[in-house]
Amino acid sequence: MLLHYGKLNINDRKGDCLYKAPRGTSDILPQEQTYWKYVEEKAAFLCQLYGYQPLTTPILEDAQLFARTVAGGTDIVDKEMYTFEDRSGQKLALRAEGTAPVCRAYLEHGLFNLPQPVKLYYIGPAFRYERPQAGRYRQHHQFGYEALGEADPALDVEIIEMAQRFLLSLGFSEFSIQLNSIGCKLCQPKYREALRQHYSNYTTYLCPDCKVRLLRNPLRLLDCKKISCQKIAETAPKITDYLCPECQAHFQSVQQYLEALVIPFQLNYRLVRGLDYYTRTVFEIEPHEEGAQSALGGGGRYDNLIEQLGGKHTPAVGFAAGIERLILNLKKQKIKVSVLPKPIAFIAYLGEEAKIEAIKLAFELHQAGIAVIKATGDKSLKGQLRQANSLCTNYAIIIGEKEVKNHTAVLRDMITNKQKTIPLAEVISSLKQN
């Protein structure tokens, strides 16, 4: 693997460090930050456009927050949470996902007293003990937004519309919106029983995890990725045949509003999402590209979650996407991203007096808001200009003994190699003009 920093190639030779980043985590190196800034800026702009405000929750939460809301029978609670006891004996967990902490903050800080719905968004790390693979890490980063306090299906559509707009703004053009309804606590019990009856005929073919799910959490059966289990799911009953009248009307309205906005979607009766707090509308966005990682993002409605945390019945709906997976797909599809601004000039010097002038000039340029890098150490002029070239600066500003006496500097164009001598007092204006 070649890492490109400026014009300098860094090969895959590594140092003799005693330590490495833990498995399933990664350093985000400077050359990768371009992608991260690109995604985060698009996310922040989108949320500002729709009136969603930023929220940052702690990385540490009470472990029961996730155990209670995500529920047993899911891999997150049963296998993937990072939990520990602190010195006071309290059981804590690293943030496993973003929605439950948002709901906890909504309750803890009385946001239910504000005009509803309350619209919030977040960007931050989440932690799950998963088998690391491309686009899936034990520490990953999520962008998500939530609208709390409103049951209107039009809000479901706003959440989906935002997800579509976000992906289009990143440069993705070929993806599908998979849509389903998983009903509510009135219609889900009958559907769970229908699933149990269906899968009971195929217990011999179920994977070990699905044999447990059959007893504890039948909806998770539809989410299994094992081929043998997927074949059984193909003939399983459809949730839409078990929806109560209210859920049926809600789902029809969601489809009607999406059609009114000409937002294409595909009904996917096996879509249940990976978390147990969802109710009614669920959706995922899948890339079309063959071999691409699974969902670019997804979400849905979770009308019972805040009530599970001790609050009043509060309908809510949201969306989340993994930033690493988005970046992986940006690279797969060769989508160009905006390059981060780089320093415009490099200041080189020859001699101690010139070094003092270089320090002063760098200070003045920074004060004027001009990005520059000043040489350090005792490199030769050739070595300093080689460094300027590797940093891809547009100009080199050279100060030697002659320039110190005359209060001037040499301004060299690093692309054409043309240079001219100008007064030190004109360096700022010259750089601003170019």
Task: Summarize this structure as a short list of keywords or feature phrases.
434 residues; alpha+beta; Rossmann fold; 5-stranded mixed beta sheet; disordered N terminus
Provide the fold topology:
Elements lengths: L2 E3 L2 E3 L22 H18 L2 E2 L5 E3 H8 L4 H6 L2 E3 L5 E4 L4 H10 L9 E10 L11 E10 L4 H18 L4 E7 L6 H13 L7 H9 L10 H8 L10 H16 L5 E2 L11 E9 L9 E5 L3 H4 L7 E7 H10 L12 E5 L2 H16 L4 E3 L6 H10 L4 E5 L1 H6 L1 E6 L5 E5 L3 H7 L1
Parallel strand pairs: 3-7, 9-10, 14-15, 14-16
Antiparallel strand pairs: 1-2, 4-6, 5-6, 7-8, 8-13, 9-11, 11-12, 12-13, 16-17, 17-18
Helix pairs in contact: 1-5, 5-9
Walkthrough of the structure:
With 434 residues, the chain is an alpha+beta fold. The protein folds into 2 domains: 21-187 and 243-332, BirA Bifunctional Protein, domain 2 (2-Layer Sandwich); 345-433, Anticodon-binding domain (Rossmann fold), CATH 3.40.50. It has helices at 33-50, 63-70, 75-80, 99-108, 153-170, 188-200, 208-216, 227-234, 245-260, 305-308, 323-332, 352-367, 381-390, 401-406, 427-433; strands at 3-5, 8-10, 53-54, 60-62, 83-85, 91-94, 118-127, 139-148, 175-181, 266-267, 279-287, 297-301, 316-322, 345-349, 372-374, 395-399, 408-413, 419-423. The strands form 4 sheets. An 8-stranded mixed β-sheet has the order 3-7-8-13-12-11-9-10, sandwiched between helices. The protein has a 5-stranded mixed β-sheet with strand order 15-14-16-17-18, with helices on both faces. Strands 4-6-5 form a 3-stranded antiparallel β-sheet. Helix 5 (153-170) crosses helix 9. The longest helix is centred in the N-terminal third of the chain and has 18 residues, at 33-50. Mean pLDDT is 88; it is low at 1-12.
